[in-house]
Write a structure and sequence with these properties.
alpha/beta, SAM-dependent_MTases_sf, Methyltransf_11, about 30% strand, Type 11 methyltransferase, methyltransferase, two-stranded antiparallel ribbon, globular, 11 strands, 7-stranded mixed β-sheet, S-adenosylmethionine-dependent methyltransferase activity, Rossmann fold
């Protein structure tokens, strides 16, 4: 299933008002960790899957990447990305992440930020990424954590007074689609457990080099009190892998 909620005017307007949409990478709490997983981008050819407004594409060029290709299914996203980009070294293309087809070894680095949990077949995607990466190339991705995606409600269990008592976890090994609510609309996300993410990468020809469940740092907690909730359950899973 290839969703394109972002080309619906109301949904896109709400997304555009989110802090990470207006403030860029520094407004994304997971950015510092994601950045730490990236290799040296100097002189590299980079592919960004689910590029959105192009924040990661522009960052890669700031780090002197040779070229960047950003892929997104939403024309609204790409229109905004192009308006924010004045760089011939970045090319934005419209298409679904699931449909990527590139030449063997065309890229040195493939990145994807909070998009792959919308993709049904992670195994097929990993095969395509492995194909288009050179040997030794890096695949760095972030997704919503499986503890967060296991139940479609994606919400706390509340007490009578409205206090957040705990984060419910059920059907963890029942992988597949979940109809969740995001920005007051229904979206389909695909739940996979941690073992599936890791083993799929390994069987697709990657060596997993680092994993993060994004434990908030003291600096994050000081800057935004809401991050204290992330000490109670992880919201994001970040992985870096190298093509064998």
């Amino acid at each position: 299933m290839k969703q394109n909620k972002y080309d619906e005017a109301g949904f896109f307007a709400k997304y555009s008002a989110m802090p990470r949409s207006t403030g860029g990478l520094e407004a994304a709490g997971e950015w510092s960790t994601f950045r730490s997983l990236l290799p040296d981008l100097h002189g590299t050819r980079v592919l960004d899957l689910g590029c959105g407004f192009g924040w990661h594409c522009r960052y890669a060029r700031e780090q002197q990447a040779e070229s960047v290709v950003g892929i997104d299914l939403s024309e609204n996203m790409l229109e905004r990305a192009r308006a924010m980009t004045d760089d011939p070294g970045i090319e934005y293309r419209r298409g679904a992440i699931e449909d990527i087809r590139f030449a063997a070894g065309e890229f040195d680095v493939v990145i994807s930020s909070l998009a792959i949990h919308y993709v049904e077949r992670f195994d097929l995607l990993c095969c395509e990424v492995q194909h288009c990466l050179r040997t030794g190339g890096s695949f760095v991705l972030s997704v919503e954590h499986p503890i967060y995606t296991a139940l479609a409600a994606q919400d706390w269990h509340y007490g009578p007074d409205g206090a957040k008592l705990h984060w419910p976890l059920d059907h963890y090994h029942d992988e597949g689609p979940r109809e969740a609510r995001f920005l007051e609309d229904d979206v389909i996300k695909y739940h996979r457990n941690i073992a599936t993410y890791l083993n799929t990468l390994i069987t697709s020809g990657f060596t997993v080099t680092k994993l993060s469940e994004l434990q908030p740092t003291p600096e994050m907690l000081e800057q935004n009190a809401a991050w204290h909730e992330e000490l109670r359950r992880p919201m994001f899973l970040l992985l870096s892998a190298v093509r064998n």
